[in-house]
Design a protein that fits this description.
It catalyses: di-trans,octa-cis-undecaprenyl diphosphate + H2O = di-trans,octa-cis-undecaprenyl phosphate + phosphate + H(+). The structure is a single chain. The protein is an all-alpha fold and 302 residues long. It has one domain. The longest helix is centred in the middle third of the chain and has 39 residues.
Length: 302
């Protein structure tokens, strides 16, 4: 693997990891285009997620400090001398940490049981293209239905936007709601679906505000991506390092870190004044382009 191929894969990973467009699908497409296939290439695509993880840790470091205090220090009685406000924050941090663990468990169990089967049957461009198309269609249908019902009830566009942004804060999330989001996250094991898309939608379904749903998706992504990275590193890491060495891995992770940080900031800002509709159009367009390339044998599915 050349340094520029590592940069391209890192940029694709970082830009798409937290957008509702599926980083796995984009990486599979990019790997096919660059003719980088096999266990080492697949492991590389997973391991450079480390850069995307670091991006979230950096941008949401205050939230992770809060969860660390609540999850580790509070049970040991090391936060008793804190101010009342800080103790209240520790309680909220402990609850959030437990909810993230609960939401992670379904994917952990199902992933371990079916990882090989998923990789054998679904890591091809035809399954990815189908997921892109139907995922995009689902986004657009949801948006159109909301607008239709709003118009029928005499709700203005501004009121609809306010209602979409309204909802419960992250602190209101219950363990049952977290578990529901966790099971919804398992849908994203089909490459092309998008983990961020289904977890954001899951958060909205259980009543979170758009901002809270996005944040929970990012936080849940850290533990999910970290587990996948560690698992794949142990499983195929030696093969990857033997074939590519450390340099491409470091370059790809750095590119993923920088691009993920910019992508997250852009998405948070964009969703404050826009919906997911643009991603629906993008997914459908990408699916149609990819399908055309496949049918014309301009890109290899093997």
């Amino acid at each position: 693997m050349t340094w520029w191929e590592a940069i391209i894969l890192g940029l694709v990973e970082g830009i798409t990891e937290y957008l509702p467009v599926s980083s796995t699908g984009h990486l599979i497409l990019t790997q096919k285009a660059l003719n980088l296939t096999g266990p080492a290439a697949n492991a590389f695509a997973i391991c450079i997620q480390a850069g995307a993880i670091i991006a979230v840790l950096g941008l949401y470091y205050k939230r992770f400090i809060q969860m660390t205090r609540g999850f580790w220090l509070r049970p040991l009685g090391l936060t008793k001398s804190a101010t009342p406000d800080l103790q209240k924050s520790d309680v909220a941090g402990q609850k959030l940490a437990f909810n993230i663990i609960i939401a992670f468990l379904p994917a952990a169990v199902i992933g371990l049981l079916f990882d090989d089967l998923i990789e054998q049957k679904l890591f091809g461009l035809y399954p990815v293209t189908a997921a892109w198309f139907f995922g995009g269609l689902a986004i657009l249908i949801t948006v159109w239905l909301k607008k239709f019902h709003a118009k029928k009830q005499g709700i203005s566009a501004a009121e609809l936007k306010a209602a979409t942004n309204a909802g419960n804060p992250l602190e209101s999330l219950t363990a049952l709601h977290a578990l529901a989001i966790g099971f919804i996250q398992c849908i994203a094991m089909w490459p092309g679906t998008s983990r961020s898309l289904v977890t954001i939608v899951g958060g909205l379904i259980v009543g979170l505000s758009a901002a809270a749903a996005v944040e929970f998706s990012f936080l849940l992504g850290v533990i999910t991506l970290l587990a996948a990275t560690l698992y794949k590193s142990l499983d195929a890491g030696p093969i990857m390092l033997e074939q590519y060495g450390w340099t491409p891995m470091l370059i790809g992770s750095l590119a993923a870190w920088l691009s993920a940080a910019l992508s997250i900031k852009w998405l948070v800002g964009y969703l404050k004044s826009h919906g997911l509709q643009i991603f629906g159009y993008y997914r459908i367009l990408l699916a149609l382009i990819t399908l055309t390339l496949l049918l014309l044998n301009l890109i290899n599915n093997n």
